[in-house]
Design brief:
single chain, four-stranded antiparallel sheet, 9 helices, 10 strands, 37% helix, binds adenosine-5'-diphosphate, binds magnesium ion, EC 7.4.2.1, nucleotide-binding, P-loop_NTPase, ABC-type polar-amino-acid transporter
Length: 261
């Protein structure tokens, strides 16, 4: 666990009517496994939602349904009031509205850092190359790797690569960014540099869904904690409420395991 001490984003509860991402009664199966069960979740514009829960509880699948890397069996998901498209150009646009940062950095190995951040802007957002490069340099500076532009991903540390991945997501000007355990593959000394970039994004008002075991981050940056177990949302609360007074036995048990190891 890392102790990033930063101030909380202003404004805790935002009315559901302002939901940017809305999941209603979402169900999904993998064969016999009911991996998402009756999921109702509304994420307001500018809100930071941390999703925690035991391994296998469906956190990654939840993220993947939001940018339609996975389809759902029933229910609905809307982004900015529009249902998720299932294919074609609309889907490509959706994918650029919903940024995703994974545990493994997923940068293009044979492209430079700069090219990694330029590519989507030109191909999907149809920006011209000079404009995209200028924007890429600004973003790489913002995440603290501006001096690494001409290197290849393998020449960077894990923490630097993950910050490039964040810059690449930002370059698409997404409406929301999903982070799926973005620091889990990092050496401990690199975790904070990535969390600090995420903290800054949160303060800047980015809408974020963050699957993480970093409880320091959850406490300081989240507006809301969503606890999942066995494909269900078991609890939703502010970080203060959740960490000081978890209501369900599942959450109590989970917290006792991660907070005391
Ligand atoms: N593509 C898939 N096909 C079949 N089962 C899957 C697939 N992806 C995930 N699962 C299963 O779904 C459950 C939830 O997985 P996941 O969403 O990755 O959980 P978490 O991220 O909370 O650890 C697990 O039991 C996992 O094995
Ligand atoms: Mg996962």
């Amino acid at each position: 666990m890392s102790g990033v001490s930063m101030s909380k984003v202003d404004g805790d509860a935002v009315p559901a009517a302002e939901g940017l991402v809305v999941l209603s009664d979402v169900n999904k199966h993998f064969g016999a496994l009911h991996v998402l069960q009756d999921i109702d979740l509304t994420i307001a514009r500018g809100e930071v939602v941390v999703v925690i829960g035991p391994s296998g509880s469906g956190k990654s699948t939840l993220c993947r349904t939001i940018n339609r890397l996975e389809s759902i069996d029933s229910g609905s998901i809307t982004i900015d009031g529009k249902p998720l498209p299932s294919e074609g150009k609309e889907l490509a646009r959706l994918r650029s509205d919903v940024g995703m940062v994974f545990q493994s950095f997923n940068l293009f190995a044979h492209k430079t850092v700069l090219e990694n951040v330029v590519l989507g802007q030109v191909k999907v957002r149809k920006k011209d190359k000079d404009e995209a490069e200028q924007r890429a340099r600004e973003l790489l500076d913002r995440v603290g790797v501006g001096s690494q532009c001409d290197k290849y991903p393998a020449q960077l540390s894990g923490g630097q690569q993950q910050r490039v991945a964040i810059a690449r997501a930002l370059a698409m000007e997404p409406k929301v960014i999903l982070f799926d355990e973005p620091t889990s593959a990092l050496d401990p000394e690199m975790i904070n540099e990535v969390l600090e970039v995420m903290q800054q994004l949160a303060r800047d008002g980015m809408t974020m869904v963050v699957v993480t075991h970093e409880m320091g981050f959850a406490r300081s940056a989240a507006n809301r904690v969503v606890f999942m177990a066995d494909g269900r949302i078991v609890e939703e609360a502010t970080p203060d409420e959740f960490f000081s007074n978890p209501r369900s036995d599942r959450a109590k048990d989970f917290l006792s395991k991660i907070l005391h190891h």
